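Narrative of activities, Objective 1.

The group set out to show that a structural description can be obtained from nothing but a protein's sequence at a throughput compatible with the screening campaign. Below is one input-output pair from the validation batch, recorded exactly as produced.
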Amino acid sequence: MRGADPRVVLGLHRSRHERRLLTGALELGVTALDTSTNYFGFRSHQILAQTAGDLLPKFTLSTKVGYFPGPGGAAHSLDPVRLQAAVEQAAKDLGREPDLVFLHNPEHSLREAALQDKDVLMRACAALDDVATKGLCAAWGVASWDPSPLANLIDSTAPRPAVLMVRAGLLVGARTLDAADVLTKAWALDSSEVWGMSPFGGSTSTPVWDRIDPRVFLRDGSQLSRTQAAFRASYHLPPVGSVAVGTDEPAHLAELVGALAAKVEEQTVQEYRSLLRDRSRGQPA
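Output recorded for this entry:
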């Protein structure tokens, strides 16, 4: 797949981490794999190494740090020392250095736009920038479920991530889409350096997908399923170069890969975003 083409990243959130999924992904040309320290009950890295350690060198591997085991199940922290230790542990558990480490949902530990929040965020970003410089990972990024609180905390002094990951797709609200655009611009990222996630809002079986037909966003989507069309449109809401999507079925992954050749109607996407903004402002659609 050429660099300019939309790229699929196999995400392991809620995944059973089965070897057959990874071998199926490789057969489809999907060579990017995304996980996190807290996936699979904080055992994702160990399970991957045990079940598919020989396959991991064939993938570009990304993971995330920021969540830690706690009394209630998981606790979030942006403490630089804990973040650096988490990256070191990830490399040990995986049996290799990750290609990319995301700062996971930094907004979880941030309060709205206070000065100290900016300092906390900058120190966390600097910590990941430092581990990348030391060679504990090839690059670092920021993965944010709700980027809105981050939009006012980034300026020219902020360390620049290699990748920004945000929610993408037809179920993402105007506020989140606009915040993703702000961060992309603030960090001077190209769309190829922005990843989308959760393109179906959690599941393709959600009733909403029976009520709408995403094929209206494609130039000629008559041969594609609604699931395929929704996935292809997600690369433009907001503009991203890659989308991380989770599945346990290679057949489903193959269906999504098959949608990449479809062309998206940019005008329809812009009209849709305008409708979302009008609705968020309480204006009649």
